[in-house]
Every structure is written in structure tokens, then in C-alpha cells.
Specification:
Layout lengths: L3 H14 L7 E6 L3 H10 L4 H16 L18 E6 L12 H10 L1 H8 L2 E6 L2 E7 L1 H5 L3 E4 H7 L1 H7 L10 H9 L3 E6 L9 E6 L6 E2 L2 E6 L4 E9 L7 E3 L2 E6 L4 E10 L3 E3 L2 E6 L4 E10 L2 E4 L2 E4 L5 E10 L4 E10 L5 E10 L4 E10 L6 E11 L5 E10 L4 E11 L2 H9 L4 H17 L4 H16 L4
Parallel strand pairs: 3-7, 6-9, 7-10, 8-11, 9-12, 10-13, 11-14, 12-15, 13-16, 14-17, 15-18, 16-19, 17-20, 18-20, 19-21, 20-22, 21-23, 22-24, 23-25
Antiparallel strand pairs: 1-2, 3-4, 5-6
Helix pairs in contact: 2-3, 3-9, 10-11, 11-12
Length: 468
């Protein structure tokens, strides 16, 4: 049984994630028209080529068909969404200068405290615009660039143009076209050759406005022999109107470089999460994806890794938790495009109260990817008989010179185990929580300590059905 202190702590956490700042917006654009796209570009004082790209994406959005995979989202109407929300604040370098109401939300989420303890740099986005960005001086002296994406377009145009939209073209699918028409905010990171960051960088994206969309763009380039960790946090308070998240992440891991990209998404349960993430990995490079998906009404998220160089590696570790009214359709795509490449996938999902978890994988080992290794493992835990869990793998092997293994395990929580734990003095609720914590522990331990604690707390609140 929970103590009064524990109950108080849980209530405090719930209130933190559902914290709503007052509406400080000075501009809201609803829907998707040429005029709206032009106004966003004008507001940001963008170069002509950026506006041209936005308008091309606008045209494609109305031409492209709805995705043929994943949950039904035919009820989505872009005209009901505030596609651009500008607050009355500007980007600050000093946290004390951020407007009090916005600062209070991020303070309660622990962003400044995390920066003080364990981060080399932090960016914070509120609705459509970045309100705070800072990088330690010693990182700047090493040549590290970490800024918001809008600034990068102005200050590093040649570097941005070399990589922007190259992994994820604007014609990739309908909702990436929507993203490119409306993108705003996000992060840009460049780590020079040979620089190894011993502390992570973090960006936190908070969607505060009711009935709004968020379309941040993140572009990270880790040059030859460099290494870094990037942490991405996402959250939104609950409303009775549909919200939309259609961000995009483009990652480049160069020769002998490595990148760990960690994400905890805790969207409210009125959110459509249609995020797109992709990565190119060169010779001897390594990408690690560590992902926690919580909240949202519907999620459709399948990060792609393209292993383009010999000995390139991908490790993908993810957990998702779907409760009542949630449909989390997640997984990954992987392309082995060189010899001696390897991928290890470890995915777990939990569903309860009628929630739906689907794991999709699409793996391609090309005929030039001799001596490659591909191991996929997905485990699903259903907390009751009304929840659902599906595994939908698609594997294409164009060469016989490959080691391939796929394991899927789907099961209901074991009543005998619950009974045994209850005979040892635990309540049924405590027994279930203990089993779920054990199930998720291998993934939680991969996050930095602060974020592992957050993930475990989110799981506890999801078990209670009190998030979002």
C-alpha cells in the first residue's frame, strides 16, 4: 500500500506534467495555406530558398495520400490546428530572463536543474519558438556548435544546406511534407572532427497551447572520430482538443564517430505524434537509439538507420506504454548497405486498459552487405485481457552471407507470479508494478540517472492511469 508521502509525490508529479502556462501568444496561425506559410517565413526573416522549400512542401502535402500503415487518423483536420504559435518572448541565453510563467513550467520539469548537474548545453522550446538556449564556454572553444535550427539557417547556411532534407526529403510522406511547410524551432548540433563530448546536450520541447501543432527540426552532425550524447525530452499538458506533433530529426554519424540519441516522449493523450527520425552512419560509425514512448492518443514513429560504411553499427532500444484510449504504433527501419554492418534491436511494450501497442520493423540487408548481423528482439506485456499487442516484422535479405535472428514474445501478465508476490506481503497493485519495473529495467538503466528515474515514475503513473 502506498504511504501518504508516496501518494503526495505521485500527485505532485502528475501536476508537473499537466502544468499549463497562461496563453502568452501574440500570434496564432490556424490551418495550412500559402499565406500562412509565407507569413511564417517572413516572421523568421528567412532566405528565399527556405521559403521556396516551404511552398514546395505545401504543394506536396495536398497531393500526397494518407499513410497506408498504422492507425486510422482520417479524422485529423489541419484547419483545426494552430500551426504556428508565437509567444511574446524571445530566445534568451540567461535563464533568469525567460518570462516567469514559461520559466515556471520548465523549472517544475527540472530543466535548469538538469543543466546545472549533468549537461553541457540546453535548449528549451515553448510551442513554436525556442525561448532559451545555452552552451558551456568550454564546448564553444572546442568548436562545438549548438543552437536552435532557425538561427543555424542564418548563421551557418552552407553547413545546413549540405545536410538539410538529404536524409528526409520533403516528398517522403504526407506528414513530413506538412513538417517542411511549417517547421519552426528545433536544434542544430555540429561536433568537429575528433571532439568527444563527456557531457550530453539536451533539448526540451513543450507544447503548451490548446489545439496547436509543433514542428521542430533537429539536425545533428557528428564529424569523423567525434562522439556525443543528445537527449530529447517532449511533453504537453492535457486538453480536450486534438494537438499535433510532427517534428523531424536528421542525424549524420561520420567515419569512426558515435552518437547516442535518447528520447523520452510524454505527450498528453489528446496528441497525435507523427514524428520522423532518420540517421546515416558511415564506416566504423555507431548510432544508439534509446527511446521511451509514453502518452499521446496516437503515435506513429519508426526511426530509420542507414548503415552506409563498413563496420557501421546500430543499437536500437525502446519501450512504449499504452493505456486506455491509446494506440502506439512504433518500431524502426534499418538498411544495411555495406559489409560487416550490424544491428541489435531490443524493443519492449506494455499495454493495459484496452491500450494498443504495435511494433513494426522493416529491415533490408542489401546484396553488398556481406558478413552482416541483424538481431531483433521484441517483447510485449499485456496487463489484462482487453489490451492488444502486435508485432509486424518485414525482413528482406538480399544476401545469404548474413547472420539473422528475430525473436518475438507476447504474453499476458502471469497470474501465478502475482499470487506468489502477494503471498510475500505485496498488494496486487504493488506486485504488478514490481513485475513491470523488472520488465522495463534493462531499458531504464541505459538512460542517464535523472531520466531513468523519470521513466520509472512515468511507468508508475501509467499503471495508475493518471497521466494525460
Amino acid at each position: 500500500m502506498k504511504t501518504d508521502v508516496t501518494k503526495y509525490q505521485d500527485e505532485k508529479i502528475r501536476n508537473i506534467y499537466n502544468e499549463k502556462a497562461k496563453d502568452t501568444s501574440i500570434k496564432k496561425e490556424y490551418g495550412l495555406t500559402r499565406e500562412i506559410v509565407e507569413n511564417i517565413s517572413k516572421e523568421k526573416n528567412e532566405d528565399a530558398w527556405v521559403l521556396e522549400l516551404r511552398l514546395k512542401a505545401l504543394e506536396l502535402y495536398y497531393k500526397l495520400e494518407e499513410p497506408t500503415w498504422g492507425p486510422d487518423i482520417s479524422y485529423f483536420d489541419v484547419n483545426q490546428i494552430a500551426t504556428y504559435v508565437k509567444s511574446n518572448s524571445k530566445e534568451e541565453k540567461n535563464w533568469d530572463d525567460v518570462p516567469e510563467d514559461i520559466k515556471n513550467v520548465f523549472d517544475k520539469l527540472g530543466i535548469p536543474e538538469a543543466e546545472k548537474k549533468s549537461l553541457a548545453g540546453v535548449g528549451a522550446q515553448f510551442d513554436s519558438e525556442v525561448v532559451y538556449h545555452n552552451l558551456e564556454e568550454k564546448m564553444k572553444k572546442l568548436g562545438v556548435i549548438y543552437t536552435n535550427f532557425d538561427t543555424a539557417l542564418k548563421e551557418y547556411p552552407d553547413l545546413v544546406k549540405e545536410y538539410f532534407t538529404k536524409i528526409t526529403p520533403i516528398s517522403d510522406h504526407k506528414y513530413i511534407a506538412l513538417h517542411y511547410a511549417l517547421f519552426s524551432g528545433g536544434s542544430f548540433v555540429y561536433v568537429p572532427k575528433g571532439v568527444k563530448l563527456d557531457l550530453p546536450l539536451q533539448s526540451y520541447f513543450r507544447l503548451n497551447a490548446k489545439g496547436a501543432g509543433q514542428f521542430e527540426h533537429t539536425l545533428i552532425i557528428v564529424d569523423e572520430g567525434a562522439s556525443m550524447e543528445f537527449i530529447e525530452g517532449c511533453s504537453a499538458p492535457g486538453y480536450n482538443e486534438l494537438n499535433l506533433h510532427a517534428g523531424c530529426v536528421e542525424l549524420y554519424v561520420k567515419k569512426n564517430a558515435s552518437l547516442r540519441f535518447s528520447t523520452i516522449e510524454n505527450w498528453s493523450k489528446n496528441m497525435l505524434n507523427l514524428n520522423t527520425k532518420k540517421c546515416y552512419v558511415e564506416e566504423n560509425g555507431k548510432i544508439e537509439w534509446i527511446m521511451g514512448s509514453f502518452g499521446s492518443k496516437v503515435s506513429m514513429l519508426y526511426p530509420l538507420s542507414v548503415l552506409n560504411g563498413k563496420n557501421a553499427k546500430c543499437e536500437f532500444t525502446a519501450i512504449s506504454f499504452a493505456g486506455s484510449g491509446q494506440n502506439l504504433d512504433t518500431g524502426l527501419k534499418i538498411i544495411h548497405n555495406a559489409e560487416n554492418t550490424s544491428t541489435v534491436v531490443n524493443s519492449k511494450s506494455i499495454s493495459k486498459d484496452g491500450g494498443i501497442c504495435t511494433f513494426r520493423s522493416n529491415a533490408l540487408v542489401k546484396n553488398n552487405a556481406k558478413n552482416s548481423k541483424l538481431t531483433l528482439s521484441c517483447e510485449s506485456l499485456m496487463m489484462d485481457s482487453i489490451s492488444r499487442s502486435d508485432t509486424i516484422p518485414v525482413n528482406t535479405l538480399e544476401t545469404e552471407d548474413v547472420v539473422f535472428a528475430h525473436e518475438a514474445k507476447i504474453g499476458k501478465i502471469n497470474d501465478e507470479t502475482i499470487f506468489y508476490l502477494m503471498t510475500r506481503g505485496l498488494t496486487e497493485e504493488e506486485a504488478k508494478a514490481l513485475i513491470v519495473r523488472g520488465f522495463s529495467e534493462p531499458i531504464a538503466k541505459l538512460f542517464p540517472v535523472e531520466y531513468a528515474v523519470e521513466m520509472n515514475r512515468l511507468i508508475e503513473l501509467e499503471l495508475e492511469g493518471t497521466i494525460g
